[in-house]
Amino acid sequence: MNSEIKLRKAEIEDRDIIWSILQQAIERRRQDGSSQWQQGYPNLDTVESDIAKGFGYVMTIDGEIAVYTALILNDEPAYSTIEGAWLSDGEFVVVHRVAVDEKFAGQGLVKKLFDHIEDFTRSQGIQSVKVDTNFDNIPMLKILESKGYSYCGEVFLAGGMRKAFEKIII
């Protein structure tokens, strides 16, 4: 049976589920020996701010929240300074805070999420998707490579240097 997968804006009623999913991801990063997300970010205030600003998105499977992310249009101050070079300087969607509920882990949902993000980007007439991740976030690095994202250099964000990627969509 095929599941119905949808990407939608997060609502304040989703806050506790989103925070639970992020806490699982924070713990997974810690268990993997990563320094990413180990200094109190993201936190519940981050989730509430994402939702209030309209940045928070959830991917649902048959109506159940499976993945959380923040999608920000044309606004990531840290991206204005890059050690390297972006592929483009037009409009872009920034992807932050990707987290999968443990009960849906290992099902390739982040790859599906990126498909939905790219469809969303195209539907908005926006040129590219930009994303960064920690040097030691091997799962995300592999996903970005598999989805055709180009390594562009490094940006300073959330207290450290991050690998920065971009994919031209249109």
Keywords:
alpha+beta, Ribosomal protein S18 acetylase RimI, GNAT_dom, 170 residues, 4 helices, ribonucleoprotein, Aminopeptidase, acyltransferase activity, transferring groups other than amino-acyl groups, ribosomal protein
Topology:
Elements: E1 5-9, H1 15-31, H2 44-53, E2 56-61, E3 64-73, E4 83-84, E5 92-100, H3 109-123, E6 128-133, H4 138-146, E7 150-157, E8 160-168
Helix pairs in contact: 1-2
Binned, the helix content reads: 25-40%
What name does the CATH topology carry? Aminopeptidase
Total helical elements: 4
Task: Indicate the overall shape.
Answer: globular
CATH superfamily: Gcn5-related N-acetyltransferase (GNAT)
Number of domains: 1
- The helix-and-strand class reads alpha+beta
Low-confidence stretches: none
> Termini separation (Å)?
33 Å
Share of β-strand residues: 25-35%
Total strands: the figure is 8
Walk across the major sheet and give the strand order: 1-2-3-5-6-8-7-4
Averaging pLDDT over every residue, what do you get?
93
Organism: Chryseobacterium soldanellicola
InterPro entries: Acyl_CoA_acyltransferase, GNAT_dom
Keywords: Ribonucleoprotein, Ribosomal protein
Domain N-acetyltransferase: 5-166
